Amino acid sequence: MAEKVLDVVDLETHFISDGKVVKAVDGVSFHLYKGETLGIVGESGSGKSVTSLSVMQLLRNTPGKIVGGTIQFGTLDIAHASDKQMRKIRGNQISMIFQEPMTSLNPVYKIGRQLTEGIILHKNVSKKEATQRAQQMLEKVGIPRAKQILNEYPHQLSGGMRQRVMIAMAMACDPEILIADEPTTALDVTIQAQILELMNELRETSQTSILMITHDLGVVAEMCDRVVVMYAGQIVEEAPIEALFAQPKHPYTQGLLASIPKLGEEVEELTSISGTVPTPETMPSGCRFEPRCPYAMARCKEQNPVLKADEDGRVYRCWLQEEGSHE
Amino acid sequence: MLKFILKRILQMIPILFVVTIVVFLFVHMIPGNPARIVAGADADQATVEMIEKKLGLDKPIVEQYFVYIGNLAKGDLGTSLKTNEPVLQEMKSRFMPTFWLTVWSMLFAVIVGVGIGILSAMKRNSFWDYLGMFGAVVGISIPSFWLGLLLMQWFSVKLGWFPTTGLDSWQGYVLPSITLGVGVAAIIARFTRSALIDVLKEDYIRTGRAKGFSESKIMIRQALKNAMVPVVTMTGLQFGFLLGGSVVIETVFGFPGLGSWLIDAVATRDYPVIQAEILLFSLEFLLINLLVDVIYGFLNPQIRYDD
Description:
- Chain A is built from twelve helices and twelve strands.
- By secondary structure, chain A is of the alpha/beta class.
- The interface between A and B is medium-sized, with 31 and 21 residues.
């Protein structure tokens, strides 16, 4: 698992609106190994979706812009790639599935056309071959009567079926990386489990690396090998999956895990992290989690800690690292 | 689909029946006696009454209506009071020039309008967008008779490329078609632009980008068909208006179409001609609405007319 397929270093993505700069992604670094599933976890506004859109260079037509850092993919730095270079990569070597299966398919074209157009674009095959491939992909993602579905329109399918079609579409060109931005959030629970299982199967057979963007720790536990936890545009902790669940280091991660209700345990009130994510106006000058942190100290107000490994090799961003254990 | 079309055509019959009543009443309420106009200003009362009797205008209006509707059921639109020729015959020779004028001007309008709309939406808030939308405002605001005269001055008088008036060859269509088309093109351009800009915000456009399509392919292959529903509605309406014959443009260019015929008919109180023309316009509108509904079905698979 040593080969890095994606290496993001110090990524800075800013949004500029009405002359104000919002640092949506503020110095984020992570890498993705071949065949691995990396989870990026955080609440809304933590910058996880913007990170994934940056990797695809899909911020065009938004006020967002990559202003710093590198995104190394093979020999190419995506952060500085031209649109032409990106078009060869998108949908081909890196593909993406989105949160909204109901609206992510074009309502006026048949499923078959939507599946084959990407294959024809990237793989230089005939329409007939592309159709065969499309049918194969639909069968692979567990869609019954694949041949008929090719001739149907998106509105004739359920949400779960549409997400399967999206996955078939994303996997059709055998991508090296699949970015899944909250792929199961809009689906009901039983369908969620099926979709996650499907993605796991596909990863095993195709050796595709998956970047899983989610706010759902259940999905992380199900899918991921490693996890990156984001808060207010920065990474606050990075850990292998077992270590993260067994012993979360950053107070924010601890809070997230504590707020999952446990089966069989009777509680009066669900645990939550008090306060809210800071807005650009209320962004603390020190540690960004300090206003909500139960262990906040004087130093936390003044200086933002750096992300680094402690003596056990655990990587997180907290002053407690230097103060000794806080458990 | 066929069943739907058939049903809609059958539904037109009662609508057209109501139209005949309304039109008949209104036409007969126009002040002015056609018999007097036929007889001439110098004719005496006896002559006028004789002509009235000959034309059947002396009978009660209800009886006149039943005679009219009876003839209509037999496919007889009556004879022109002015020329004494069957109305149907004249209508046939007048309809085709107006029909082709409408087709050419709409073709011009759709190509130019959709083209400018796409460019403006693609290069949104750029110089080209502003230029295109400024052109559209000018196109909507410019009075068509003035534009017609302007084009005539340039291309007919100065350059001599096209005839000033009349319809002796295909060249006679060019200037009237452009004159009529400019205003419609401007409206279509604005509709296309705003519809495309709405569609470009949709999630499936992001999916298209994630597949690796270029912006121009996104526009043509993913967005355009979705944006066409409002444009088709608009185009259908305009088509109906133009098919009624443009009174102003046909007059400016001395064009032998339905519009100039209607003007003549109103001036001479030629009841059968007015009635026939308005009935034709109503039928045209009903057919165009049906056509637009059928096109909706092709554009958006969620609109299907199964029963």
